[in-house]
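About this split. The held-out portion is used to measure sequence recovery: a designer receives only the structure tokens and must propose an amino acid at every position. Recovery is the fraction of positions where the proposal matches the reference. Here is one held-out target exactly as it appears in the evaluation file.
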């Protein structure tokens, strides 16, 4: 379980998050939605421990919290074969008794990645394939909480659809908590069970995805929905 109690974060000249009260239970599939500057990425950094709140408390019953970042091209060393990039994190994996083949190859099959791609460099695979390797490198470590930051933003429609299906299957199989951060409410609606809406650093809405069109939605949430209904 993850709890944020009256959390705030600010820089000397800018207030970023205020009065964040949030509980995410184990196994939940949650989306965090908001426009640029709403505080989404700062919230992610706080949960990951990259930043520390200036006020409030963040409590978690696990330290196994890992991110999947948006830009796969910036996540891999361009001079390193993908096999090496995937092998390195496994050196520190708690279940080291399992081999590369036992851990990675079954996941590659689920991610629709041919094993021959392991011998290539990042610029020798498609953007969609590289993003799936980006996903693979994190999910193979089986984090208790997985945070996905805008990971479909740079993909075309076909690659985006494939990745959405993959994320849903990973959540179903690993039963980990998954937090997906996005500015695209249409993408989140296809994946998550619960949506949290940030606007100017505060939570303005928190609801089950199936209730997205309820009249009870905050006006800001409705404005996000309207953009994708036009």
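Reference sequence for scoring:
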């Amino acid at each position: 379980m993850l709890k944020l109690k009256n959390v705030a974060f600010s820089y000397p000249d800018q207030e970023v998050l205020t009065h964040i009260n949030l509980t995410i239970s184990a196994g939940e599939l949650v989306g965090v939605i908001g426009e640029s500057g709403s505080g989404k990425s700062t919230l992610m950094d706080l949960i990951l421990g990259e930043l520390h709140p200036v006020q409030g408390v963040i409590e978690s019953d696990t330290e196994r919290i890992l991110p999947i970042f948006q830009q796969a091209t910036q996540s891999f060393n361009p001079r390193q074969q993908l096999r090496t990039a995937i092998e390195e994190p496994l050196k520190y994996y708690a279940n080291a008794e399992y081999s590369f083949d036992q851990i990675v190859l079954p996941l590659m099959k689920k991610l629709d990645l041919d094993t021959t791609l392991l011998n290539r460099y990042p610029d020798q695979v498609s953007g969609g394939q590289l993003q799936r390797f980006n996903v693979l490198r994190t999910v193979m470590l089986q984090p208790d909480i997985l945070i996905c930051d805008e990971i479909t933003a740079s993909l075309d429609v076909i690659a985006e659809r494939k990745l959405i299906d993959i994320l849903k299957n990973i959540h179903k199989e690993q039963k980990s908590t998954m937090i997906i951060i996005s500015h695209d409410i249409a993408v989140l609606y296809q994946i998550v069970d619960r949506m949290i809406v940030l606007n100017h650093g505060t939570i303005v809405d928190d609801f089950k995805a199936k209730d997205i069109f309820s009249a009870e939605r905050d006006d800001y949430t409705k404005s996000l929905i309207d953009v994708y209904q036009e």
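Annotator remark: The chain has two domains: 1-64+146-171+178-230, 75-141.
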